[in-house]
Structures are given as C-alpha cells and as structure tokens.
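ok so dumb question maybe but i'm new to this and my supervisor (M.) told me to 'just get the structure for Peptidyl-tRNA hydrolase' and walked off. so i did the thing. is this what she meant?? sequence i used:
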Amino acid sequence: MKLIIGLGNPGPTYARTWHNAGFLALDELNRELGGGPFKEKKKFPAMVAEVASDWAPVILAKPQTFMNQSGRAVGALLRFYRLTPADLWVLHDDLDLPLGSMRVSVGASAAGHRGVQSIIAAIGSQEFTRFRIGIQSKTPRKVPAEAYVLKKISLTGTVKLRQAIGETVSAIELALTKDIAAAMNRFN
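this is what came out, is it supposed to look like this??
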C-alpha cells in the first residue's frame, strides 16, 4: 500500500495558488487512477480518497491543516494505515525548480519547504519519496517567497504548471507499475 499526500492549504482562498500545486496534482492523479471522491476524515485531519489500482491499494490524502502543519495529518495517516516512511510519497510545490519542471527525490532534506519540514518532524524521518513540482518564475520575484507561493497562478503559469502536473502523474504511474528508480531515471 502507498500513501500519496498532496500538500496545499485548505479553503477557496488558496485553491488556485502556487502553494497548492500538490493538491492540484493529487486531484489529477485521482482522476487518472479512477479513484473515488475525496471525503473528509476529521481524525487525521485530511480529505482522503482510496484507489483500488491494478498495482497496489493507494490512499490519496490532502491534509486540511495549513501547509506548515502538514505533518500532523501525515503522521496520523501513517499510524492509522500502519505504514512506514518508505510507503509515503509527497507531492508539493518547489521554488528551486523552474516552472513546468518536476523532479523525484528520495530521502532528501526539506530544503526550506515548511510543509515537508513539518512531515519530517512529525514522522521522525526524511526517508520518503517526494515529487517536487517546479513553480520558480523566470523573472526575479519582487515579493518574498512566503508571499509568492500564496499568489494566484497566472494564465501562463497554469499552462506550464499543467505540464509539470502531467509529468508528475506519469512518474507516479511508472513508479506504481515498476519502482521509484524507474521514475527517477525517466523523469529526472
């Protein structure tokens, strides 16, 4: 079983912001895998969808805490499903990667991403897989990173973000059918 987490902030205010790239990618993955609707599970707290894929059962979850508290939901989900960090895959935005790109990493540090930092602190390990979705603009930012990630995604940005999300979904499908190494070899 795999637990796949999309990181973002809950609520309509943040729905189309850069920081919600993980939520957007998870929604697309759910559509591709033919999963059911996301349902609120207050005990985690997260929106959860279960997918009975051909490869293995997959749990998709969107923490309903704010980004900086994501670890609270992720830790509860891991404990409930009796999974290890090796069974955890996290989809999230990455300001260090160019917009439209995607990278897969395993066992990497948080590199300043507070949602990832929260997960590492909550589960006591960084030995999980991350699908990092690039959101870095080509033009210099005139606002701090904390403000940029909460900005609405532009029309041009939407096109490039969809490209990265498509690659993310393809990489996850390959990882599910083969393994993470195959996804890394093809998409990194």
